[in-house]
Amino acid sequence: MSDKEHNQPDLHKREGTEPGEAQAAPSAEPSPQPPYTGAAGSGQSPSSVSSAMAGVESGKLIDLLRNPSSALNLQPQKDWMYGAIGAIVGVIGFFFWIWCFQEAIKQKLFSVLGNLFLYSILGMATPGKYFLIGLFSVVLLVGTLTVLGNWQGARKRNWMEVVTLQGSSQLLFGAVWIVSGLLAFMSLQLSMLLGAAALLINLLLLVAQAQDFHEVSRERRFLYIVYAMGIYMLLLFFVYSIIV
């Protein structure tokens, strides 16, 4: 047998194995990636909340205390925690101011026994009701401005954007109401003046920011303010009547 005939089986064997090896190589495909659910999913997991809390910068909080309009520089996808912090501080501050103001009045007008008797009789004197009133006040105002803004404005906003902008702007006012509450034990007039001024400025700021945020045209701004304030006051009246 010649060398040529002796090498033919090896050649055929090699030709039979090489296509199989070529087919086996592409079989190692990468595993499919999990679908992306988006930053604004149905809810925030505990790990995402803890990571957001860890990412809170004191410098941004100080900027919000100095100027609530700096909330316009926040990015809702990663800075939403500032809106949550501001909203919580605002509600707690409003509750603290009203509660301290009432306690200061009772201390000035009634004795210790009379104070306890009045506190037990008046159901509206419970601190929990003041907290609910402050909470509903902020939620109803921001909700009304958002719904009407998405209806009459040129730009629609989701709730994460609204919470980030409007919620973070409440940080300063919450701090002012806390100071107003402490001042009530020294001067009721000064406490009322500072707290009422903070309420008025806060209302004006939220309305102005909502107009720019939703890009409400000039010819619609008057009706926007009228509708928003009318609906807000009506809803707040019903909530106050139910709670108190």
TrEMBL record:
Sorted UniProt keywords: Membrane, Transmembrane, Transmembrane helix
Biased composition (Low complexity): 38-51
Region ranges (Disordered): 1-51
Endpoints of the signal sequence: none
Keyword Phosphoprotein: no
Bias (Basic and acidic residues): 1-17
Superkingdom in the source lineage: Bacteria
Spans traversing the lipid bilayer: 80-101, 108-125, 131-151, 163-186, 192-210, 222-243
Protein name, as recorded: Uncharacterized protein
Species name: Cohnella boryungensis
